[in-house]
Design a protein that fits this description.
The chain has helices spanning 90-96, 217-220, 380-394; strands spanning 15-19, 41-42, 51-61, 71-85, 105-107, 116-118, 130-139, 145-159, 175-181, 184-188, 202-205, 222-223, 228-229, 231-233, 238-240, 244-247, 251-253, 263-269, 279-282, 289-293, 301-304, 311-313, 320-325, 328-331, 334-335, 351-352, 355-356, 360-361, 366-374. The protein has 397 residues and is mostly beta strands. A hairpin with a 4-residue loop joins strand 12 (222-223) and strand 13.
């Protein structure tokens, strides 16, 4: 509502879908033209525009003192959708007469036997209700395509006129198709969902879980933001569906060059005590650097920023989420330690499961689940939210 929006003017055909009554509606993330999933089945091509109408009957209360109704209620309503199915097939004809496509008898061809399909008409007083859906196309002001969908929760189809068999150039056989039902839903998707990793500039997840299924090591070594593969340097890490990438092996190479305004969040498990880096980078002269050691073997997590500002925070962390947001260390989403002095020199690109010292060094020993890198300093609330999410994913959620 409000000022006119040209993008709200829609010109689109509509595809027809049906499913058993009670079937869940397709997820809003299902793209236009994609399969709806579940038990939803497509009803071929249509040759006429989709007509959608709503009618209701109302009971009006009249009193002697007024010339107009003082109260009004709906007592009946009907949602009606009409089109013409372009494909002349017995299954579609069965659906259009208020039946079930399963009513069609099908005979496969064989020796001395022609293949055929047959549908018996008449003699049946019952009708078959289905859930129906109709999908068109909506384009926003930037030209991005989104689905526009109409649903009838429970409706019965019927033949809405005569079928035409014609050899004329301007006519061809179609099945007039009408659905009548009650409750209806109009759904227009107006924007894509934000990915679980938000506005991260690099995201990697190596453990199979409900949020991010990982099929194999190649899928584990993938930057989800760019869709580009990541490579290992200095060795190869093992991979398992529930263990992620297991070191010691090689460093995972990224092209991200972090500074004091970045946030780096890593999830891991089974960290072995020692100077083993979750991730790390140094300047060319090795004076500046950023890295995290989950368990230094002396009872602390170590957050490194430069030679004068390493932050030691007991106790060590064997499994969980550690992060550096700007100059502030975080353990499982909670700030800890005194914010450090910042970098004073440009560092090499960030490497994971070890440190970039020109070569891969201090290989991480344990299970590495994933990392998020942001080119901004996340707030305390954001750090907690992402840590909670990654810990849930690490648990298989």
């Amino acid at each position: 509502m409000g000022d006119p929006v040209a993008a709200n003017v829609v010109k689109s055909g509509a595809a027809v879908w049906f499913a058993p009554v009670g079937e869940a509606l397709p997820d809003e993330n299902v793209a236009y033209g994609a399969a709806w999933g579940g038990n939803w089945a497509r009803v071929g091509y249509t040759q006429a525009p989709l007509l959608w109408g709503y009618e209701d009957e109302r009971h009006r209360v009249m009193i002697e003192e007024e010339i107009g109704a003082v109260r009004e209620w709906r007592i009946r309503e009907t949602v009606r959708l009409e089109t013409v199915l372009a494909e002349f097939a017995a299954g579609y004809l069965a659906l259009a007469r208020g039946g079930d496509p399963g009513d069609v008898s099908v005979m496969a061809s064989g020796a001395g036997q022609a293949g055929y399909e047959a549908l018996m008409f008449g003699g049946d007083v019952t009708t078959q209700a289905f859930a129906y859906g109709f999908e068109g196309l909506y384009e926003d002001a930037d030209g991005a395509a989104f689905p526009l969908r109409l649903f009838v929760t429970q409706g019965v189809a019927k033949l809405n006129g005569a079928m035409v068999l014609s050899g004329r150039d301007d006519a061809y056989t179609g099945i007039p198709f009408q659905v009548e039902g009650g409750e209806s839903t109009l759904e227009r998707v107006t924007a894509d969902a934000v990915p679980w990793y938000g506005d991260a500039i690099l995201a990697m997840w190596a453990r199979d879980c409900a949020t991010q299924p990982v099929a194999d090591k190649a899928a584990a070594l993938m930057d989800l933001v760019s869709g580009s593969p990541l490579v290992e340097s200095g060795g190869s890490n093992a991979w398992g569906a529930t263990t992620g990438l297991t070191g010691p092996g090689g460093c995972i190479v990224t092209s991200v060059v972090p500074d004091n305004s970045y946030t780096i969040i890593a999830a891991f498990a089974n960290a072995t005590p020692g100077l083993y880096l979750l991730f790390g980078t140094t300047s060319v002269d090795y004076i500046n650097g950023i890295w995290i050691v989950p368990d230094n073997g002396s009872g602390s997590v170590v957050y490194k920023f430069d030679p004068l500002s390493a932050v030691f925070v007991p106790p060590p962390l064997t499994s969980g989420v550690l992060a550096i947001a700007g100059l502030q260390p975080y353990r499982n989403g909670v700030a800890e330690g005194v914010p450090a002095a910042g970098l004073t020199d440009v560092v090499r690109p960030l490497w994971l499961m070890g440190g970039n010292f020109g070569v891969c060094g201090n290989h991480f020993v344990g299970d590495f689940y994933g990392v998020l890198v942001f080119d901004r300093v996340l707030s305390a609330a954001e750090n907690l939210a992402y840590a909670t999410l990654l810990n849930s994913m690490a648990a298989g959620g």
